[in-house]
Amino acid sequence: MSRSQSPRTQADWQALAAGLAFESRAFIDDAFVAAASGDTFESRNPATNEILAQVASCDAVDAELAVTAARAAFTGGEWSRLAPGKRKKVLLRLADLMEANKHELALIDTLDMGKPVSSSLGDMNGAIACIRYQAECIDKLYGEVAPTGEDALALVLREPIGVVAAIVPWNFPLMMTAWKIAPALAAGNSVILKPSEKSPLSALRLAQLAKEAGIPRGVFQVLPGFGHTAGKALALSMEVDCLAFTGSTAVGKQLMQYAGQSNLKRVYLECGGKSPNIVFADCKELDKVAKHAAAAIFHNQGEVCIAGSRLLVENVIREEFVERVLKAAETMQPGDPLDPESFMGAIVDETQHRRILDYIRQGVEEGARLRTGGQAIDGPGYFIPPTVFDGVTPQMTIGREEIFGPVLAVFGFDSEEEAVALANDTPHGLAAGLWSQDIDRIMRVTRRLQSGQVFVNNWAGGDQTMPFGGVKQSGNGRDKSHHSLEEYSSLKSVWMALHRD
Ligand code: NAD
């Protein structure tokens, strides 16, 4: 099939995949280059275990080159001092190019990390919408004139921060990228993107599109490599002014230390979760709620920061509700990621596959009741079916730790107070859901949940207008909405003395 046609069937996607060529070099100072060391790492398709590309493995030397180019671009002002309306035009051009190439971008993420292609297409729509939203925001964000007497004019100006390093994970490779780079670029910063070593390829394709869109030299660069080499070098750099991170809580903690050891750069963290999804007995349409509860954990193979991994069900309906969840889970089995009908795809790699199976083993050993799933599906790729444990308690490992896989832990509760206490009994605070028809209860519980976002009678609803981020050890940053744009700028207070006569 030709590139201009939209793929619809599994065969269409396979044909498109057969014709793909991957950019696998780093994008530094406006050029695609090998790592200075010449080192590469393998990018594999986790659904087939085939090697897709040998990708430049950047380290501290390459990071230094990128940081120098980013700083020069920022100081030069071609982007940082460009009128916001002109930056907007370039970013809208980038969004248009992404739109024109969205099937290819979606396919790259699917091949690189195993998610179903229909899900990747949804991610592309989200990524493009984010770039457009932030581009449109930037020429509508005003500074302030502070209240003074006649003897002064006091301005609060909003300025770009400088060099932003965006370090992102593999579970939504291009969408997480867009959530960082769109506001950071719109605000006028120079951005160095460090994609995950497990999914670097769409970021490199994006670099090609950014160049084509006209983003000036050194303003957007992509540094593929490992966390402990490329990522750490950026985080310790004295010339990086801000770290925008999405990833695990453990690495988030390290980044704060690196900032302290270096130049006190700003650190925005979007970290892990163990999100509670609370079902009260008064909620309506239990079948529909059960489907949402299953999708909340099995979407993207459970590799979702806001996965509804803890299902808290009022005990009076628990038995029947779990049966409905099991029925829904049955329809969500993993399949070929290139089949648009597949609900789940492959687990990202062997390490994550092993990790998930290890958690399942611990769940069984610690006495949780395995109701479905639990066994790996035979390879060559890495597949795990929807897995549901009932009778989970907060003491069990699977009830406490983020698994990042298709494993649901069901808890029972008898009262609203118990539900809230269970929900908040976690170091994380990224997302929470509640299902009820009682508006008083909805408002009471919503206010008591320690969570960056609360979904009422839905899971994962929202759009670009809503800030996305966590509390507690889920992080301190906010992606999306104009709040994220504000994070990537500094306030400058200007007090101008005026003569009164
Ligand atoms: P990770 O923390 O292992 O890696 C994330 C990124 O950090 C990668 O690019 C990695 O190379 C880099 N990194 C690792 N060690 C580093 C170091 N020492 N210095 C600098 N960079 C380093 O996370 P992951 O496995 O890629 O992603 C899964 C995690 O991401 C989960 O915990 C998930 O909840 C979280 N996540 C959070 C959100 C959110 O918005 N809150 C969204 C998606 C994923």
From TrEMBL:
GO molecular function: aldehyde dehydrogenase [NAD(P)+] activity
Catalytic residue list: E270
Residues annotated as domain Aldehyde dehydrogenase: 33-494
Oxidoreductase among keywords: yes
Pfam families reported for this sequence: Aldedh
Enzyme class, broadest EC rank: oxidoreductase
CDD domains in alphabetical order: ALDH_GABALDH-PuuC
Protein name: Aldehyde dehydrogenase PuuC
Organism: Halomonas chromatireducens
Organism classification: Bacteria, Pseudomonadati, Pseudomonadota, Gammaproteobacteria, Oceanospirillales
Primary gene name: puuC
